[in-house]
Amino acid sequence: MTGRPHSRTAGPRTGAAAPDLLAHIDGGARGNPGPAGYGVHLTTAAGEPVAAIYGYLGIATNNIAEYAALLALLEHVLAMRPARLAIRSDSELLIRQMKGEYRVKDPKLKVLHAEARLMVARLPRVSFEHVRREHNREADALANRAMDEQAGSHPLPAGLRTVPALMTRARLPNL
């Protein structure tokens, strides 16, 4: 199922902006909860590679891993100042929650959702789109790499480092 992009626009900003960016994000857990990781594949709108980010979370749920991918992406792009950011994920739950179509019921996800909303508000234009799994292969491969290697390319997103109780066990790598 492919959803319509959801956009949010803010007022004018000063300084040079990066080109429009396209991100594919994915999170996964083997066992749910189980060993979990996330992946972010970031390109320009023209398809030029920008970043490949992945991280191992220890034991977590799939939904926490999906939000970890979103937070890692947002943390990375905030410094880049893109004029537009399109975020694509195969997690219908995450996309619909970020678009305001689904309520966030899980208390752990409420914390991550709130952090993500604050970060999104700092960008001029962000869209969210649900894509089929086969259209999210690069991000999925990065999430699996994180789980296979039990390692990451970057430190854990700050939004997760500050709330370690979100993990089902207190095993947080990359602190």
Structural summary, described in words:
The protein is of the alpha/beta class. The chain has a single domain (17-166), classed as Ribonuclease H-like superfamily/Ribonuclease H (Nucleotidyltransferase, domain 5). Helix content is 31%, strand content 27%. The protein is built from 5 helices and 6 strands. The chain has helices at residues 62-78, 92-98, 107-120, 137-149, 158-161; strands spanning 6-9, 21-29, 34-44, 49-60, 85-89, 125-130. A 6-stranded mixed beta sheet has the order 1-6-5-2-3-4. Strand 2 and strand 3 form a beta hairpin. Helix 1 (62-78) runs parallel beside helix 3. The longest helix is centred in the middle third of the chain and has 17 residues, at 62-78.
Tell me roughly what share of residues is in helical segments: 25-40%
CATH topology heading:
Nucleotidyltransferase, domain 5
Estimate nothing, just give the exact number of structural domains: 1
Low-confidence stretches: 1-15, 168-175
Estimated share of beta-strand residues: 25-35%
> CATH class, anyone?
Alpha Beta
Number of strands: 6
CATH superfamily: Ribonuclease H-like superfamily/Ribonuclease H
- The SS-based structural class is alpha/beta
Numbering strands along the chain, what is their spatial order in the largest sheet? 1-6-5-2-3-4
Described by strand count, sense and barrel closure, the largest sheet is:
6 strands, mixed
Radius of gyration from the alpha-carbon trace, in angstroms:
15 Å
Q: What is the subunit organization of this protein?
A: single chain
Give descriptors for this structure:
5 helices, 175 residues, alpha/beta, 31% helix, disordered N terminus
